[in-house]
Write a structure and sequence with these properties.
Layout: H1 22-31, E1 46-47, H2 59-66, H3 76-89, E2 93-97, H4 100-111, E3 117-120, H5 125-133, E4 137-140, H6 161-170, E5 178-182, H7 195-208, E6 211-215, H8 219-229, H9 238-247, E7 251-255, E8 266-270, H10 273-286, H11 297-310, H12 313-333, E9 345-349, H13 350-353, H14 363-375, E10 377-378, E11 380-382, E12 403-407, H15 415-430, E13 439-443, E14 454-457
Parallel strand pairs: 1-10, 3-4, 5-6, 6-7
Antiparallel strand pairs: 2-8, 7-8, 9-12, 11-12, 13-14
Helix pairs in contact: 1-14, 2-11, 3-11, 4-5, 4-10, 6-7, 8-9, 12-15, 14-15
The protein binds ligand F0G.
Ligand F0G binds at residues 50, 52, 99-101, 124, 126-127, 182, 186, 215, 217, 255, 257, 266.
Length: 459
C-alpha cells in the first residue's frame, strides 16, 4: 500500500493552549469592541489571525541565534544574512529592517513622491498604506478571475498584463516609481503568480523603463506552486525557481516573518548600488545603521537559516498540504472559499455564507466574530473594514470580495486543529440563515483602521 503523507519534521517543544466557554468569549469580545485584534491571545484557542511571525523556528534556527553577533556596525550576522540574500535570492545589496512594512517605508521614502502612480496586483494593506500616506495612488491590476472565488485556475494571483500596460502607457514613467508584484498575492487569497506572468511584468517594466519590485513575503510558497503547477518547472528545485523569479526584479521588499520563518524581521534588497545608497539614509533614520537596520544580530542569523529552510521542497510541501487539507474538509461541508486553496491561508467567501448581512454591516467581520464565538478560533477580515475609506471622498470602499482569512502559522498546528476549525465553521454555516445583522463602526483611524477599529452590534 502507498504510504500516506506525513510532516517532514517532528516536534520537540510545545506550548499549551486553552479552550474557553462561549460565555467567556462573549464577554471578551465585548471588551475587545468586536475587533479580533483586541483579544488577548490567551483567550484564543486556535489563532489564525496571521501567518506572520507566528511560525515555529527550527532547532537550526534556534542554534543560529546563539551565534548572533550584536556589534553595532559590521556584525558577523549581517554578513551571514548578506550571503543568504545573495546566494538564495540573487541580490547584491540589502538593508535589514524590523519587518516588511519598514522595508516598504525605507524603499518608498527614496522612490515615491506625491502624485505618483504605483500599479500592482492587490497591494497588501501596509504597501497601499505607505503609497497613499505619500499621497500617491496604488492601482490594482490583478486579473479579474481572482474575484470569482469558485473558479479554479492555477495562477489566480497574476497581474493582468493588459491592465498594467494601460497604466504604464497612460502616465509618464517619471510618475511611476515602480510596479509592485506581490507573490503570492495575499489579498486575492494567497494565490500564486506564474513564472510566465512574472516574465510578462518584467518585459513591460523594461519596455516602459519602470523599476520592478517584488513584494516577497511569501515568495517561496509562490515558487512551490510554480514547481507543482506550471509546465517546465517540475524538475527544478525550489531554489532554482526562486533564483529565476528574482532574476527579473530590480528590487524586493521582504517581510521575513512569513517565508523566512522568523518571529520578527525584514529587509529590502536591490541590484543597484545607487538605489541602495539612496535608501541608506531612510534606513538609518527610521530603522538603524545599515548593517542591522531594525534587527538584532541573532535575528539576522536565524533569518539567514530560515531563508534556506523556507526554500526546501519538503518543508513547503508539508506546509501547503496542511492548507489544502483544511480546504478539503471545507469541501466536505460545502463551505465556499477562494479556490483553489492558497499558500498560507483559506479565505472563506463570507458573502456566500452570510447572505442576509448587508455589506454596510461588514459581512466578513461578522463571520469572523461568529467563528470566534463558536470555538475560540481567530481569523481576520479581508473586506470593507480592511479596505479603508477612499482617500479622496472619505466614503467607505466596499470591495467585491468579503473574505474571512484563516491564516495557518508555519509548523505550528496539527491536522487535528484543522479538523476543529472546519467543524466550527460548519456549525456557523449551519446556522447562517439566522445571522441577519452585523456591526457598525464607533471608532476608526484614517488609515489601516482595521487594527484598532471599534465596533458595536447593529441589533
Ligand atoms: N506584504 C505582504 C504581501 C504581506 O502579507 C505583509 C504582511 C507585508 C507586506 C508587511 O509585512 O507585517 O512584516 O510589516 N502581512 C501580514 C499578514 C501582516 O497578516 O498578512 P510586515
Amino acid at each position: 500500500m502507498e504510504l500516506p503523507f506525513a510532516e517532514s519534521y517532528k516536534i520537540r517543544m510545545v506550548e499549551t493552549i486553552r479552550r474557553s466557554t462561549r460565555a467567556e468569549r462573549e464577554q471578551w469580545l465585548k471588551e475587545a469592541k468586536y475587533n479580533l485584534f483586541g483579544l488577548k491571545s490567551d483567550h484564543v484557542f486556535i489563532d489564525l489571525l496571521t501567518d506572520s511571525g507566528t511560525g515555529a523556528m527550527s532547532d537550526r534556527q534556534w542554534s543560529a541565534m546563539m551565534l548572533g553577533d550584536e556589534s553595532y556596525a559590521g556584525a558577523r550576522s549581517y554578513y551571514v544574512m548578506k550571503e543568504a540574500v545573495k546566494n538564495i535570492l540573487g541580490f547584491d545589496y540589502f538593508l535589514p529592517t524590523h519587518q516588511g512594512r519598514a522595508a516598504e517605508n525605507v524603499l518608498f521614502s527614496a522612490i515615491i513622491k506625491e502624485g505618483d502612480i504605483v500599479p500592482g496586483n492587490s497591494h497588501f494593506d501596509t504597501t497601499k498604506g505607505h503609497i497613499e500616506f505619500r499621497k500617491a495612488l496604488a492601482i490594482d491590476c490583478t486579473i479579474d478571475e481572482a474575484k470569482d472565488t469558485q473558479l479554479e485556475i492555477p495562477f489566480k494571483g497574476n497581474v493582468d498584463l493588459k491592465k498594467l500596460e494601460e497604466v504604464l502607457k497612460k502616465y509618464p514613467k517619471e510618475k511611476i516609481p515602480c510596479v509592485v508584484l506581490t507573490a503570492t498575492n495575499n489579498t486575492a487569497g494567497g494565490q500564486p503568480v506564474s513564472m510566465e506572468n512574472i516574465r510578462g511584468v518584467s518585459a513591460l517594466c523594461k519596455k516602459y523603463g519602470v523599476l520592478m519590485l517584488i513584494d516577497s513575503a511569501r515568495f517561496a510558497e509562490n515558487a512551490y506552486f510554480i514547481k507543482t503547477r506550471e509546465k517546465g518547472f517540475q524538475n527544478k528545485t525550489i531554489k532554482e525557481i526562486v533564483k529565476e523569479m528574482f532574476s527579473y526584479a530590480d528590487v524586493m521588499t521582504m517581510s521575513s516573518k512569513k517565508d523566512a520563518i522568523v518571529n520578527m524581521g525584514g529587509f529590502t534588497a536591490m541590484k543597484s548600488e545607487e538605489l541602495w545608497k539612496k535608501c541608506q539614509m531612510y534606513c538609518i533614520i527610521n530603522e538603524g545603521f545599515i548593517t542591522y537596520g531594525g534587527m538584532s544580530g541573532r535575528d539576522m542569523h536565524a533569518l539567514a537559516q530560515g531563508l534556506d529552510e523556507g526554500t526546501e521542497f519538503e518543508y513547503l510541501e508539508t506546509r501547503i498540504k496542511q492548507v489544502e487539507y483544511l480546504g478539503k474538509k471545507l469541501d466536505e461541508y460545502g463551505i465556499p472559499y477562494q479556490r483553489p486553496a492558497g499558500g498560507h491561508a483559506i479565505f472563506v467567501d463570507a458573502k456566500k455564507v452570510l447572505t442576509h448581512v448587508p455589506k454596510e454591516e461588514f459581512i466578513a467581520q461578522t463571520l469572523g466574530v461568529e467563528l470566534y464565538l463558536e470555538a475560540g478560533i481567530r481569523g481576520v477580515e479581508i473586506g470593507a473594514i480592511l479596505a479603508d475609506r477612499d482617500p479622496v471622498t472619505r466614503e467607505n470602499r466596499y470591495p467585491e470580495l468579503e473574505l474571512l482569512r484563516l491564516a495557518i502559522p508555519r509548523r505550528t498546528y496539527t491536522n487535528n486543529h484543522m479538523d476543529v476549525i472546519a467543524a466550527a465553521l460548519k456549525n456557523v454555516y449551519d446556522r447562517r440563515e439566522k445571522i441577519t445583522h452585523g456591526y457598525k463602526i464607533t471608532y476608526e483611524n484614517p488609515i489601516m483602521r482595521h487594527f484598532t477599529v471599534e465596533l458595536e452590534k447593529v441589533k
